[in-house]
Amino acid sequence: MSRDGTTWHQASPTFLFPKAALAKRVARLFRDSLNKICPGLELPSHVFDQRWVVHIQPWGQGEQAVLDYLARYAFRIAITNHRLIALDETGVTFRYKDRKAKRHKPCTVTGHEFMRRYLQHVLPKGFMQTPGLCGEHR
């Protein structure tokens, strides 16, 4: 829709949201959420003045592709033990699936980076997975 809400602009068949508009919206939502959570926190103004980058990648076509994509995130745990390969002073090594190459590959990251990625999958307080769909209960 146009800003004034009077005109419909058809989305491109290759993407649903214009990347630049989505990046602005993400930055604004992040800033507003951060202000609610940490009202006294002051970040340098240039953090929100610069152009933000969002990653948009097409994933299949049709309703089933959307459901398959979302199901991977909605009904699974962040990482299973069988994907963990090694843990030492240099970091954590785990196996991930490279979908383009259609094979599993190892990835080593620092312990801090591993925890950062892992914690992105922890649901916020008050949210829960739907029990019973995959035999998992939270």
Describe this structure in words.
This protein is α+β, with helices and mostly antiparallel strands and 138 residues long. Among the domains are: 48 residues, no CATH class; 45 residues, no CATH class. Helix content is 33%, strand content 14%. It contains 4 helices and 3 strands; from the N terminus they run H-H-H-E-E-E-H. Strands 1-2-3 form a 3-stranded antiparallel beta sheet. The relative contact order is 0.08.
Described by the principal axes of the CA atoms, the overall outline is extended
| Terminal residue distance | 40 Å
Q: What's the main sheet like? A: 3 strands, antiparallel
Based on DSSP secondary structure assignment, what is the total number of beta strands?
3
The side-by-side strand order for the widest beta sheet comes to 1-2-3
Give a brief outline of the structure.
By secondary structure, the chain is α+β, with helices and mostly antiparallel strands. The protein is 33% helix and 14% strand. The radius of gyration is 19 Å and the shape is extended.
Keywords, please?
138 residues; 3-stranded antiparallel sheet; 4 helices; 33% helix
Secondary structure elements and pairings:
Blueprint: H1 19-37, H2 46-49, H3 62-74, E1 84-88, E2 91-98, E3 103-109, H4 111-119
